[in-house]
Automatic annotation (TrEMBL), chain A:
Membrane-crossing segments per the record: none
Annotated InterPro entries: Bardet-Biedl_syndrome_2_prot (IPR016616), BBS2_GAE_dom (IPR029333), BBS2_hp_dom (IPR055380), BBS2_Mid (IPR029429), BBS2_N (IPR029430), Quinoprotein_ADH-like_sf (IPR011047), WD40/YVTN_repeat-like_dom_sf (IPR015943)
Main localization of the protein described in the UniProt heading: other
Keywords: Cell projection, Cilium, Cytoplasm, Cytoskeleton
Top-level taxon of origin: Eukaryota
One Gene Ontology cellular component: motile cilium
Protein known as: Bardet-Biedl syndrome 2 protein homolog
From TrEMBL, chain B:
SUPFAM superfamilies named among the record's database cross-references: Quinoprotein alcohol dehydrogenase-like
Residues covered by the BBS7 GAE domain: 397-510
Record-level GO cellular component terms: axoneme; BBSome; ciliary basal body; membrane
Record domain BBS7 platform: where: 518-629
Biased composition (Basic and acidic residues): 355-372
Ranges annotated as biased composition (Low complexity): 335-345
Protein name (database record): Bardet-Biedl syndrome 7 protein
């Protein structure tokens, strides 16, 4: 790639609030969208900007999304989005809005009707589309590839997902907050690279992945191999867009917008890297290699005083919530570092004063499978200065936080599923997903208890499984089981989550109450604002008449009304916050209920929940959660 | 100035300084490089067509080489090599034949060697000895460790003047066995000395002075990074000029003098502990850094001479990892024969004339091909060696780390530097006393929570930290701030990068003294700050008390130091005692003065905490040694507001920073949503907006700084009330709240003991 043009805008560009609209840039700034020749003003801060088709400007606000035909100065639709608008993506026919735990699709051709709705585990920060396929990235490190509303691929990454771009039906590029960039082909990660800085934007052009980091680095990589094709450093990247700013009918350019307002257009066609530089780098690399090898050769012979028995091995064992590292006799473990190979972060480390052949370390456990890279430092004596280093890998199963506990009280809520597999397969799954797993078995993690029981039917082909626990945990267990058994479809036979259902109903009541308060507060504020306006006019009149007593009285009154308004605002803000949290909780609950199922059953569960909430049929929700389908339709 | 970097060779690790020297080669030809490493191996190399060719290589066996000197040693050619190995000195001829061996009777290793004809000068840890034809000729013992030695010419025919740079900030000038005079350096000890070659002087303009009185010039480098020159006369010395190291205040490990620009001033070349090589050019009274390069490994030796060609002036340095690098103005691959010297004049603006016949491209290709070949060969060799090693019982290669813990008075923290001859993978660091990590810019840092069950009663684990190095760096350096009070130890596990199975690590240990943030100063009496007094009386000797001080304070020499001549004794009403040492806390700027003699000691400090720590330590030691010691404490109430004021501005800065950081987002929102807020926004907010990045950075760096300050104040509070006979530890939360509000008057009022007497 090479730089084709560069222009400087007199606006700071916030990350992700930019789009190419009718051959020029549309940039959100505060409550405005700055276009080539005009500024559009909005009631609230602009959170996202996108372009639908050729002439529709889509603008996201904190609680609404609106589409605007600028040329005709006509609003095509204005839809409230209770979950907020974090990002907007355009699919072949829809405007997709990522908000707080949800993704909503509006159809501009249908006057903005809501035609798609689905949930996510946390705030949705990254959205992309390829035809009818949708990519959703959320703050709980999840990336989902949906076909319409039906999930096709779900993967968990190592940090918040900040950028996504689709390469084809089932291949996509992703970017994370920790600076990772990579490409997936369905469930399989094809490649990834890491940087220290936050990844801000990813775009795909002609099977090359173009990415921009917060430190200003812009790279282009081969989508298949990840090989670097282009590299440059500009100002801190705010967005990378695809479009044509040159007004010709040439190919679209990759447009890199920096935070400081600098905009660059990049076109394919590379200036080859200067050969001189290349050879200098190679020379440097070879020198470093030579130096390292010379040192290694010199160090190949050792010092006999440090010798430890030749067959020394470090073993890892789990006891309760401790990891126990042991070496055979005549050696001690001096220190230990454990790194999660996925996130690259250090999970635990210890450097005890009382070094011995056994070292116990408590691990912070999460409900996440991980490959741990363990490095143990072993010496012949505790006072030795020369130390042997042992590297070992340890696979931490997904439910490592749960420890077998026979006497834990079994929870009342459970789910029943019937699986077309043998008991033996289930045992294999338990072995893989739990530490020292048992079937049937009861596990505890803190106060939380999880219990699993399985019974093979007489035909030896079907196994009935009942899983007790909280909805959150059970749904994760079901998903993990389904992934392991590679199930395309799974329907629950029975589910009972009385606590969660009650909780959901209460949540919905709370949402309704908060909504009512919001309307009331808005009405109140409107009244106050009217008073304010009148007072200002009266004040101005009094001032013109030079009636200082009256001016003073009006001012005092104005002060009072203003104070009231500020107080009202504070109330409104608190209320809004509570509302958002409640909505987020509702979405999470739906997500979990859906996760008790797999495939079409899951998609149906989400759709039915949404319908029930829209129709305000709260009582039906319990049935949907438990049975997975809405019965209220038939009523 | 433009110098080309040339990798010469690679030897074993070099833990000692001054083990690489240049030695005369063939008459009229280039100089050779002689270097000794930690394995006791001495190699002599000559550069031929840009490639180092071994002239001879000898393994002397036994210990590592501690110093190397070159000289005429009886012959007139100056091609003899003198190698110090611990207490032994060996003389080698130009082909490596041993012609001389001498065992010194001293127990200390010889770290500095210099030769002038049949005179041999050696500097050990504390002792300087001169030998004449192998016989003891002169001896002098310094009060503090010798960091640098230089032998001057024989002024007016007398014995040599020898300069010894000592830890106690003094350069002692010795003639024969007698101290002639000493030159004090206020800011930090001198760590490198080099006498100007006879043909060069520091300043050509003041020839008058030289004619009037015999003198010579010496280049020096100091621990604080300062580099300069001084003029030494027969009875005194004067620092002519010096410049500070703006790029990191890194210790100067070696200096040399050269002339890179013809007829125009002199250049002092300096190698530093952080791996930088600098050329300081001084002409017409102005000194400037004209060249800088970084090898990112500690420079252990550095000399200037003609190595690449007979007429060039090159810089040759040897690093800790044993890498020999030359910086040359000559483009080495251009021609094999040296050009006539007449061509060889160049200026700052015009670097050397371009290369000759063969095209640069081809040379580069050749170079790469050769390197590739070397790498391939080495890979095979390493593999063979590994296989051989694997068949034996597992051992760890000898990888002596270079570990250093140095107090940085400017930033009031300790800088810990760990270096290996190979890249570092990670470092696990623990401390038995509380410390605060101030900064580490080059590695990923994680701080696991120390676990109780990993402790022993004598060795608690108060702080654990893992540094994972990102790039292929041989050195890791980070900054720590210690908390005064408890003495302790810190340990670092340094893991070398390597292939699995052959990885190894080394342990480095450091002591943390109870009053670790104190730094020795010459005198503190200048201002009349109020002081608290602590007096001891009992059956102890001055040496015993000196040792007790040495156990709690840094920079204490092994023996008590009497007043120097000319130094003013205390003109206080009290009678002065025999010995005295003064310290200043680099963080709070509190002072501590200790006067002591046999049976009596007086300590004065404006910091009650320092008094309390010292009192506790001395009492503990006295009980341990069964010595009866009585102590009396006199608290001056004026020290309390005084001490609180000392840290008040630091506290204010932290509180302001926290407040500003809180407003950052709000101010930023105003700036993004309003039109041109600069017109009406208050100055403070405008400042916050303009400096947002800095504030964020400061905040990241100062995450725990406020806690640390609060800790100092609460410790001070507890100590103050302890002296009033009150245990006020349960009142700490109340005080903390006051300090965090940054309410000076209420804080001060809270220190009144009458408030807390129940």
């Amino acid at each position: 790639m090479q730089e084709a043009y560069r222009l400087r805008l007199e606006v700071e560009i916030s990350p992700r609030v930019a789009s190419v609209f009718e051959g020029s840039l549309a940039i959100g700034r505060g409550r405005q969208v700055v276009l080539k020749e005009e500024c559009l003003n909005f009631k609230n801060t602009v959170t996202a900007v996108a372009t639908f088709g050729s002439n529709l400007l889509v603008v996201g606000l904190p609680a609404a999304v609106t589409a605007f035909e600028v040329a005709k100065n006509a609003e095509i639709f204005y839809n409230e989005v209770a979950d907020g608008v974090n990002c907007i993506a355009i699919s072949s026919s829809l405007v997709l809005v990522g908000g707080n735990c949800s993704v909503v699709g509006f159809s501009p051709r249908n006057g903005g009707a809501e035609v798609l709705w689905t949930v996510a585990g946390d705030n949705v920060r990254a959205l992309a589309a390829f035809g009818e396929r949708i990519l959703v990235g959320s703050d709980d490190y999840d990336i989902k590839l949906l076909d319409g509303e039906e999930p096709v691929v779900e993967v968990t990454e190592a940090d918040r997902v900040t950028a996504l771009a689709a390469l084809s039906e089932d291949r996509f590029a992703f970017g994370l907050a920790n600076g990772t960039l990579g490409v997936y082909h369905r469930h399989k990660r094809v490649w990834r690279v890491k940087s220290k800085h936050e990844l801000v934007a990813v775009q795909v052009v002609e099977q090359a992945v173009v990415s921009g980091w917060a430190n200003g680095a812009v790279t282009s990589r081969n989508a298949e191999t990840g090989a670097s094709l282009f590299r440059a450093t500009y100002g801190s990247v705010a967005a990378i867009l695809l479009g044509d700013l040159r007004g010709g009918d040439g190919p679209p350019q990759v447009i890199v917008c920096s935070r400081d307002g600098e905009v660059r257009g990049l076109v394919p066609g590379a200036a080859p890297p200067p050969e001189e530089e290349e050879s200098a780098r190679l020379e440097h690399h070879l020198r470093a290699r030579k130096k390292a090898l010379t040192a290694a050769l010199r160090l190949a012979g050792g010092d006999d005083r440090s010798a430890i028995p030749a067959d020394t091995r470090v073993t890892v064992d789990v006891q309760g919530l401790d990891f126990v590292f042991r070496v055979a006799k005549h050696a001690v473990i001096l220190s230990l570092v454990v790194v999660d190979s996925e996130t690259g972060e250090s999970v635990a480390a210890a450097y005890p004063s009382n070094a011995g052949p056994e070292l116990r370390v408590a691990f912070p456990r999460e409900k996440k499978a991980a490959t741990l890279k363990i490095q143990a430092h072993v010496a012949a004596r505790a006072s030795s200065d020369a130390v042997h280093v042992f590297d070992l890998d340890y696979e931490l199963p997904k439910f490592c936080a749960f420890v077998v506990s026979e006497d834990a009280p079994k929870p009342t809520s459970f789910v029943d599923v019937a699986l077309d597999v043998s008991l033996q397969r289930l045992r294999e799954w338990v072995d893989r997903s739990f530490i020292a797993g048992e079937l049937p078995g009861t596990y505890a993690s803190g106060d939380e208890v999880l219990s699993i029981r399985a019974e093979e039917r007489d035909d030896n082909r079907t196994t009935d499984v009942r899983i007790w626990g909280t909805l959150a945990t059970v749904s994760e267990v079901v998903q993990d089981l389904a992934t392991y058994l590679n199930l395309q479809h799974l329907e629950t036979t029975k589910a009972e989550f009385p606590v969660e259902v009650a909780c959901l109903e209460e949540l919905l009541e709370r949402v309704a109450a908060r909504n009512a308060i919001r309307l009331k507060l808005t009405a109140d504020m409107a009244g106050e604002t009217r008073r304010l306006k009148t007072l200002v006019v009266k004040l101005e009149d009094a001032r013109l008449l030079a009636d200082m007593t009256l001016v003073r009285r009006h001012l005092a009154e104005l002060f009072g009304v203003n104070a009231q308004l500020v107080a009202e605002y504070a109330k409104r803000a608190t209320n809004h916050e509570a509302l958002v949290t409640a909505l987020q909780d509702v979405n999470k609950m739906i997500q979990r209920a859906a996760n008790l199922r797999v495939g079409a059953a899951k998609a149906r569960c989400v759709a039915d929940c949404r319908k029930a909430i829209k129709a305000n049929a709260t009582h039906a929700l319990a049935a949907i959660v438990c049975v997975g389908t809405s019965q209220y339709k038939s009523q | 100035m433009d110098l080309e970097r040339l990798e010469l060779s690679q030897v074993g690790t070099v833990s000692h300084r001054h083990t690489m020297r240049l030695v005369a080669g063939k008459p009229g030809g280039k100089q050779r490089v002689v270097v000794g490493d930690d394995l006791g191996c001495v190699a002599c190399l000559e550069l031929k067509r840009g490639e180092a060719v071994v002239v001879f290589k000898q393994t002397l066996g036994g210990e590592g080489v501690t110093a190397v000197a070159t000289g005429s040693g009886g012959g007139a050619k100056g091609d003899r090599i003198f190698v110090a190995q611990g207490q032994t000195i060996v003389g080698l001829q130009r082909k490596g034949k041993q012609f001389f061996k001498m065992e010194s009777s001293l127990v200390e290793p010889i770290c500095h060697v210099s030769v002038d004809e049949h005179h041999l000068f050696t500097g050990c840890e504390y002792v300087y000895t001169k030998y004449d034809n192998g016989k003891d000729d002169a001896f002098y013992m310094c009060h503090d460790r010798i960091g640098a030695m230089a032998v001057g010419p024989r002024l007016s025919g007398g014995p040599h003047l020898v300069l010894l740079g000592c830890r106690d900030h003094v350069v002692r000038v010795v003639r024969g066995s007698d101290l002639v005079f000493q030159q004090r350096f206020e800011d930090s000890p001198v760590t490198a000395l080099k006498v100007f070659p006879s043909a060069m002087t520091d300043d050509d303009d003041d020839d008058d002075e030289r004619r009037r009185e015999p003198c010579f010039d010496v280049a020096f480098g100091a621990e604080s990074g300062r580099v300069g020159a001084m003029r030494v006369f027969e009875d005194r010395a004067r620092v002519s000029w010096a410049i500070d190291d703006d790029g990191g205040r890194s210790r100067a490990t070696c200096v040399d003098v050269a002339r890179f620009f013809q007829g125009d001033g002199v250049d002092i070349v300096c190698g530093r502990a952080d791996g930088r090589v600098q050329v300081v050019h001084r002409a017409a009274g102005v000194a400037n850094v004209v060249f800088q390069a970084s090898l990112s490994e500690a420079i252990q030796s550095l000399e200037c001479g003609s190595v690449v060609a007979a007429a060039t002036t090159d810089i040759v340095c040897c690093t800790f990892a044993g890498t020999l690098v030359a910086f040359s103005p000559e483009h080495h691959h251009s021609s094999s024969s040296p050009r006539p010297t007449t061509e060889h004049s160049f200026s700052l603006t015009a670097p050397l004339s371009p290369r000759a016949d063969d095209s640069p491209r081809e040379t580069t290709e050749n170079k790469i091909a050769r390197l590739q070949h070397d790498v391939d060969r080495l890979e095979v060799e390493v593999e063979t060696a590994r296989r051989r090693a694997a068949s034996q019982s597992p051992t760890v290669p000898r990888l002596e780390p270079r570990a250093e813990m140095r107090l940085d008075p400017e930033n009031a923290c300790y800088v810990i530097t760990l270096e290996l001859p190979v890249p570092i993978e990670l470092v696990v660091f623990k401390s038995s006393v509380r410390v605060e990590l101030v900064e580490c810019s080059t590695a990923l840092v994680s701080r696991p929570r120390p676990e109780r069950r990993h402790e022993t009663s004598k060795q608690p684990v108060a702080f654990v930290c893992v540094f994972r190095c990102q790039d292929e760096a041989n050195a890791l350096s980070f900054k720590l701030r210690t908390v005064e009070g408890e003495p302790g130890t810190a340990t670092a596990m340094v893991v070398a990068r390597g292939t699995p199975g052959t990885k190894s690590a080394q342990v480095a240990r450091f002591d943390v003294k109870a009053l670790s943030l104190h730094r020795r100063v010459r005198a503190t009496r200048a201002d009349d700050r109020p002081t608290n007094r602590l007096a001891f009386q009992g059956d102890f000797s001055a040496q015993m008390f000196h040792d007790w001080l040495g156990a709690c304070l840094p920079e204490v020499p092994p023996r008590p130091q009497p007043y120097e001549e000319g130094e003013e004794k205390d003109d206080d009403a009290e009678q002065a005692l025999d010995y005295r040492m003064c310290f200043r806390n680099v963080y709070t700027a509190g002072t501590l003065e200790c006067d002591y003699a046999d049976g009596e000691a007086r300590v004065r400090s404006d910091s009650l905490s320092a008094i309390a720590i010292l009192k506790e330590h001395v009492s503990k030691e006295a009980v341990r040694l069964r010595v009866s010691v009585r102590d009396t404490v006199t608290v001056d109430d004026a020290t309390i507001p005084h001490f609180l004021k000392l840290i008040d501005h630091k506290l204010k800065a932290q509180v302001d920073l926290a407040r500003r950081a809180m407003l950052l987002d709000a101010v930023n929102e105003i700036y993004t949503s309003e039109e041109d807020p600069d017109q009406w926004i208050s100055e403070e907010y405008a400042y916050i907006h303009a400096n947002a990045a800095n504030i964020r950075k400061d905040l990241d760096n100062s995450e725990t700084a406020l806690d640390y300050l609060v800790g100092i104040v609460t410790d001070f509070f507890v100590d103050r009330l302890k002296f009033a006979g009150i245990d006020a530890r349960h009142k700490i939360p109340q005080l903390e709240a006051l300090v965090r509000k940054h309410d000076f008057d209420s804080t001060l009022a809270f220190f009144d003991p009458s408030l807390h007497r129940s």
